[in-house]
Write a structure and sequence with these properties.
single chain; alpha+beta; five-stranded antiparallel β-sheet; 5 helices
């Protein structure tokens, strides 16, 4: 496997003393897992933050081998991770993509939707500017994976209705794409819901 493309960092886990296994969402190959040497070192740790956009150079000798990746930062979400609401939203949507999407299966619409959602989280003056895109991303993910959800679109100015849709989508996500592995992932969504609940309609 060889691939050079922009990618969204969705998750990392330590491997050995200094490396990480990163799960990265690309437009043409979907989620790819890759070994990143020095991923926990001083240079690469701030690059491999979930939500960041990186350029990856991915290589493996065979389809069965875990690819090695070189990464270069294109866009950092780091400045928003000190803000409780944006940080919770970024944590949730990247964990959802990393966990729910099968490896090496392209979902270009989801890649584009997640890119737009992360941009909205980082530029909107408040959560009211990105909760609707977040709900749309969740619905799209369910549909792309083959799960239809009968959820109506709330009005953009009806905060209570948005939270109602948020609450109705949670069990659908837990029941279907996250059925086997929802523990820690859904915990990120619960935290986000708690923080959204502090905003008054």
């Amino acid at each position: 496997m060889q691939l050079r493309a922009p990618a969204i960092v969705c998750a990392t886990r330590p491997h050995g003393e200094t490396a990480v296994i990163a799960r990265l969402l690309t437009e043409e190959a979907g989620i790819v897992a890759a070994y990143v040497a020095g991923g926990r070192g001083r240079q690469l740790r701030p690059v491999l933050i979930p939500g960041n956009v990186v350029e990856i150079d991915l290589r493996s000798r065979s389809e069965d081998q875990l690819p090695f990746a070189r990464v270069e930062l294109l866009e950092s979400r780091g400045p928003w991770l000190s803000e409780p609401l944006p940080a919770a939203a970024i944590s949730w949507v990247t964990a959802l993509a990393a966990t729910a999407l099968p490896e090496r299966q392209a979902f270009p619409a989801l890649y584009q939707a997640l890119t737009a959602l992360l941009d909205a989280i980082c530029v909107a003056p408040s959560a009211r500017g990105w909760v609707m895109p977040l709900l749309s991303f969740e619905v799209l993910l369910l549909r792309e994976l083959g799960y239809g959800v009968p959820v109506g679109r709330p009005n953009d100015d009806d905060w209570g209705a948005m939270l109602d849709v948020f609450d109705r989508l949670g069990p659908e996500l837990a029941r279907y794409p996250l059925a086997e592995r929802r523990g820690d992932v859904m915990g990120a969504r619960v935290l986000l819901r708690e923080r959204l609940g502090r905003i008054h309609g």
